[in-house]
Structure formats: structure tokens, C-alpha cells
Design goal:
Elements: E1 2-8, E2 11-20, H1 25-34, E3 42-53, H2 55-70, E4 74-78, H3 84-91, E5 100-101, H4 104-112
Parallel strand pairs: 2-3, 3-4, 4-5
Antiparallel strand pairs: 1-2
Length: about 120
Amino acid sequence: MTVDVAEVRGVPVAHVAGVLDVTSADDLASAVLKILPNAAPGLIVDLTELTHLDSAGLRVLFRTARRLEDRQQQLRLVVRPDTLVEDLLSANDVGAYAPLDNALDDAVAELVRPA
């Protein structure tokens, strides 16, 4: 798994590629929490280049969403439509904790939208 970090319109974005499983889930958790400043409205994790996701990966996404909620920030996930990753996230109701977007621009727009 690789994690590339960027910032789009003041929102940190973690682009995750490869396999998110028991061997890499802790690495993702550490990486995303390090890049998130307190002033950011939230965090976007771009999973469009993810090739595999298992229960450990799902667990780290749920935990990250809860941690951000405690900080009054939001986690948004970007996924390609009609993929196994989207199916797994939907089947496990991840969208109830971290909204799913099909495009990075949509996720950013939601986070920077005035209250």
C-alpha cells in the first residue's frame, strides 16, 4: 500500500493505492492522523486506486471516522462507482459514518461548503 498526501483547497487528502489489509491498516491510520491539522474541516481518503480491502481496512476507516467526529471534523471517502471496494463499503454501511463520494472534487466541495 502507498499513501500520497496532498492538500486541495485547504483540505488534506490521502491518496491510497494498493492493498489495505491487516498488514497495512495501522500504517494508514498513522499516516492520516499525522496529516490532519486541527483547523481542517476534515479529511478525504481517496480509495480510487485501492485494489483490495479487508476487514482490518474497514476497521481503520470506521475508527478514523469516529476520531474525526470527536474532533468535530468529517472523514469523506472517494471511491470509484461499481467496484468491489464500493460494494464492500456500502455493504458494511461505512457511508453512515464517512460519506462516500465518486469524485475528489465533490468530496472537497462538501467539506469546504459554508455552514
